Structure to design on (448 residues):
C-alpha cells in the first residue's frame, strides 16, 4: 500500500472523511479526521495534536505530567499500511498513526513507536512476533440510563447464534471487507456475551487490527441499534470479557521459533525461556495488559480469566495457556495464549511489554518451572506455596506498584511513556478506590 493506491481507493469508495486514530494510555481510541480532498497533504504532514492528550485519562481528566501539557504539539502521522475503507460508516476510512515530534522523530510517549522499537529489538535476533487478540464482548440494549444484555442465552448456544445471527453476519462481512480474516465466532458464557477471533499478523499490524476489531464490533452493533462493550467486566454477575493474546515467534525463513517437534509439548527452549520471562514479569505486566480498575473485577480465580502466574497445556485457569496445536499443522499452529489481558489495554503497549518480558526470559534463559495442570485456585494456600504459585495483583494500584518496580518493562517503555502511563492509570485507580460500585461498572461500560 502506498499513498497513490490509497487515493485510488478513496476515489472508488467515494470516501469523504479519513480518521487518523491513535490509542492513548487509558486504552481509549481517539483521533482527528481529515477531509479526503486533503488526504495526500495530511499523509505527508500529519495532523497536529497537543502533547497533553497522552496525559488524559479514560474519563477525560487531564493529568499533570512534565513533558506534556498546554505547550507543545506532536503530529499524528498515518501509517499507509493501516489504511482501510470503513464498511460500517458512510464514506469513511481509517488510518492508524504514529506520534512524531516536529523534527519527524518518534515522540517518546508514542505507544505505537514503542512497539516499533520492540519489533526492532526482536529483529536483532532475526525474529518477529505473530499475534492476535481474541475479543470477547457483551452485546447489550440501552434501557433507561443503563445497559442490559441482549439475551439470556447459554454458553455456545445455538439459540444465541439465531438471535444474534444478523449482527454476526454483518460483523464478519465488515471485518472481511477490511482485510481481517475471521477465524471463529461464537456466543460465550455470559448473557449477551460473544467472542470473535481474527487471523494473526506481525505485532504492529496485530495491534492496529485489534483497534479495528474493537471499532468494528462497536459500530456494527450500533448499526443494529445495539451497544457492544469490550469492558473487562461489564456486569458484576456475568462472565468477564477477555482479550486473550495468542502469540508465537517466527524467523524470516518462515520457521516458528517456538516449535520443536522433539521437545515436550512441541515447545522449543526459546519458547520455554520466553514463558519464563513473561511469568517473571507478569505481576507488573498485568498493569499494562489488564490496565483498568474494572480489569481486576474480571481477573479472579475460577473465572477462566487467570488469577495466578502459572502456565499449562490447555489450562484455562493458567495465565499462559499452551494452546494445543492443530492436528493438520503443528509447526504452523504452535502458539501461546496470554489470558491475563483484556480490551481495556492499549494493544501497542501490551504487545511491546509482552516482547520486553519474553526477551528478558530468552536473554537470561529463565526457566518457567513445571507446568501446572490443575486449577491453581482449587489448591490450598500451602499447596500453592509449595509449588511457588504467585497470585496476580488483585487491584490496579497493586499492579502499578509492581510495574513501577519493574526495571525491564519501565526501561523498555522509556521515561516519558512510563510516566504518562502511570499518571493516567494511577488517576483512574484513585477515582474508583475502594469497593466496586455501580458507578465503576457503568463508567467503564462504553469506554471500551
Ligand atoms: N471469559 C473468560 C475471560 O474473562 C474467558 C473464557 C474462555 O474463553 O476461556 O477471560
Ligand atoms: Mg472465550
Amino acid at each position: 500500500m502506498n499513498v497513490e493506491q490509497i487515493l485510488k481507493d478513496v476515489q472508488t469508495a467515494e470516501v469523504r472523511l479519513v480518521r487518523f486514530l491513535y490509542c492513548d494510555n487509558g486504552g481509549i481510541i481517539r483521533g482527528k479526521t481529515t477531509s479526503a480532498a486533503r488526504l495526500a497533504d495530511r499523509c505527508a504532514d500529519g495532523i497536529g495534536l497537543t502533547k497533553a492528550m497522552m496525559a488524559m485519562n479514560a474519563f477525560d481528566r487531564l493529568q499533570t505530567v512534565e513533558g506534556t501539557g498546554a505547550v507543545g504539539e506532536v503530529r499524528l502521522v498515518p501509517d499507509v499500511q493501516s489504511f482501510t475503507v470503513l464498511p460500517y460508516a458512510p464514506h469513511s476510512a481509517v488510518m492508524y498513526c504514529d506520534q512524531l515530534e516536529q523534527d519527524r522523530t518518534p515522540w517518546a510517549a508514542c505507544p505505537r513507536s514503542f512497539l516499533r522499537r520492540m519489533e526492532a529489538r526482536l529483529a536483532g535476533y532475526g525474529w518477529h512476533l505473530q499475534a492476535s487478540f481474541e475479543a470477547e464482548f457483551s452485546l447489550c440494549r440501552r434501557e433507561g440510563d443503563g445497559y442490559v444484555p441482549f439475551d439470556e442465552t447459554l454458553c455456545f448456544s445455538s439459540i444465541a447464534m439465531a438471535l444474534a445471527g444478523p449482527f454476526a453476519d454483518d460483523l464478519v462481512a465488515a471485518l472481511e471487507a477490511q482485510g481481517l480474516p475471521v477465524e471463529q465466532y461464537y456466543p460465550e458464557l455470559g448473557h449477551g456475551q460473544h467472542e470473535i477471533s481474527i487471523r494473526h499478523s506481525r505485532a504492529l499490524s496485530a495491534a492496529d487490527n485489534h483497534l479495528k476489531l474493537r471499532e468494528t464490533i462497536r459500530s456494527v452493533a450500533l448499526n443494529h441499534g445495539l451497544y457492544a462493550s469490550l469492558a473487562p467486566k461489564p456486569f458484576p454477575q456475568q462472565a468477564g470479557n477477555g482479550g486473550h493474546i495468542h502469540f508465537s515467534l517466527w524467523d524470516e525463513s518462515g520457521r516458528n521459533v517456538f516449535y520443536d517437534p522433539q521437545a515436550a509439548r512441541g515447545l522449543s527452549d526459546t519458547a520455554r525461556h520466553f514463558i519464563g520471562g513473561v511469568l517473571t514479569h507478569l505481576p507488573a505486566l498485568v498493569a499494562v495488559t489488564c490496565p483498568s480498575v474494572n480489569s481486576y473485577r474480571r481477573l479472579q480465580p475460577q473465572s477462566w480469566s487467570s488469577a495466578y502466574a502459572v502456565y499449562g497445556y490447555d489450562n484455562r485457569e493458567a495465565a499462559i495457556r499452551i494452546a494445543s496445536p492443530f492436528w493438520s499443522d503443528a509447526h504452523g499452529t504452535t502458539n501461546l495464549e496470554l489470558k491475563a489481558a483484556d480490551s481495556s489495554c492499549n494493544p501497542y503497549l501490551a504487545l511491546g511489554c509482552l516482547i520486553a518480558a519474553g526477551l528478558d526470559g530468552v536473554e537470561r534463559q529463565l526457566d518457567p518451572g513445571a507446568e501446572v495442570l490443575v486449577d491453581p485456585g482449587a489448591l490450598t494456600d500451602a499447596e500453592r506455596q509449595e509449588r511457588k504459585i504467585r497470585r496476580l495483583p488483585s487491584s490496579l494500584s497493586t499492579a502499578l506498584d509492581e510495574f513501577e518496580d519493574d526495571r525491564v518493562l519501565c526501561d523498555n517503555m522509556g521515561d516519558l511513556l512510563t510516566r504518562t502511563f502511570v499518571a493516567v492509570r494511577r488517576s483512574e485507580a484513585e477515582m474508583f478506590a475502594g469497593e466496586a460500585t455501580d458507578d465503576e461498572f457503568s463508567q467503564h461500560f462504553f469506554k471500551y
Observations:
- The CA atoms of residues 15 and 91 lie 4 Å apart.
- The longest helix spans residues 203-223.
- The pocket of magnesium ion (ligand 2) is lined by residues 136, 188, 195 (CB under 6 Å).
- DSSP finds 15 helices and 16 strands in the chain.
